[in-house]
Amino acid sequence: MNQLLVLDKIKLAYPHQKQLKVVVENFSLSLQEGEIGCLLGPSGCGKTTVLRSIAGFEPVYAGEIKLANIVLSAPDKMVEPENRHIGMMFQDYALFPHLTIEQNIAFGLKNKDKAYIKSRTAEMLSLINLADTRKRYPHELSGGQQQRVALARAIAPSPKILLLDEPFSNLDTDSRERLAFEVREILKENKLSAILVTHNQAEAFAIADKIGIMSHGKLLQWSTPNEIMHNPNSKEVSDFIRRDSLSTLREQAFMR
Ligand SMILES: Nc1ncnc2c1ncn2[C@@H]1O[C@H](COP(=O)(O)OP(=O)(O)OP(=O)(O)O)[C@@H](O)[C@H]1O
């Protein structure tokens, strides 16, 4: 299979008091076509920053990001976000409240012809099983339904890859895991590749082909869920998996 996304030794930083605060360093991973990758790690380890750099919202200070063999980011190169052919479903990337469900889905298709917009929107609505809601407004749908619409909106323009940042975090535990499985099915049926960011281990294991465990801006391991679970490459990874399992169980106990 072909490598679709390659992050090669990237360094990411934020300006801080006239200096640079490095938050991610020497970070490499590759994702093949059709694969779903998931970055997992504690709050502040740099997951969102990595995702934002792939989307083109943060520059790289070293290394490069390539998508389908094209360099998107390097210290001397920055392809604009709108020219990257990347779909996004971010935590704060809510639906437009004044647009109907079908208008929301059609949002990224503005430059296409009318017939295509109509058929693509109908296709997306049936993909997420919400054809009967097309004339409704976002506030008339449940949180899980709204997230499915956000997914359809991101998929509609046929991006090369989807980036999902904590897409299920506003949902209760049961809906969260159900939706994670549903999203996996939709992505797999459509042979779509994605990178998802979460701090919820159950979600990562439910959805991903590859999981990356992050700590303090470093990628500790990038492997299949099975490898991560049964063959962690360091004590830090095995401690994280164990500690995180406990906190997920605790979180579930409180939320039920
Ligand atoms: N705009 C910014 N300016 C300066 N520092 C930032 C900015 N955004 C993030 N940071 C810092 O970069 C580091 C990584 O943050 P990031 O949001 O990528 O972590 P995260 O793993 O996604 O965390 P969370 O799970 O809480 O969303 C943190 O120390 C954070 O404080």
Automatic annotation (TrEMBL):
It holds the Pfam family ABC_tran. The keyword Membrane applies. CDD domains: ABC_Carb_Solutes_like. The keyword Kinase does not apply. Residues 5-241 form the ABC transporter domain. GO terms for cellular component: membrane. InterPro entries: AAA+_ATPase, ABC_SmlMolc_Importer, ABC_transporter-like_ATP-bd, ABC_transporter-like_CS, ABC_transpr_FbpC, P-loop_NTPase. One of its GO terms (molecular function) is ABC-type ferric iron transporter activity. PROSITE patterns: ABC_TRANSPORTER_1 (PS00211), ABC_TRANSPORTER_2 (PS50893). Keywords: ATP-binding, Cell inner membrane, Cell membrane, Ion transport, Iron, Iron transport, Membrane, Nucleotide-binding, Translocase, Transport. GO terms for biological process: quaternary ammonium group transport. This is ABC transporter ATP-binding protein.
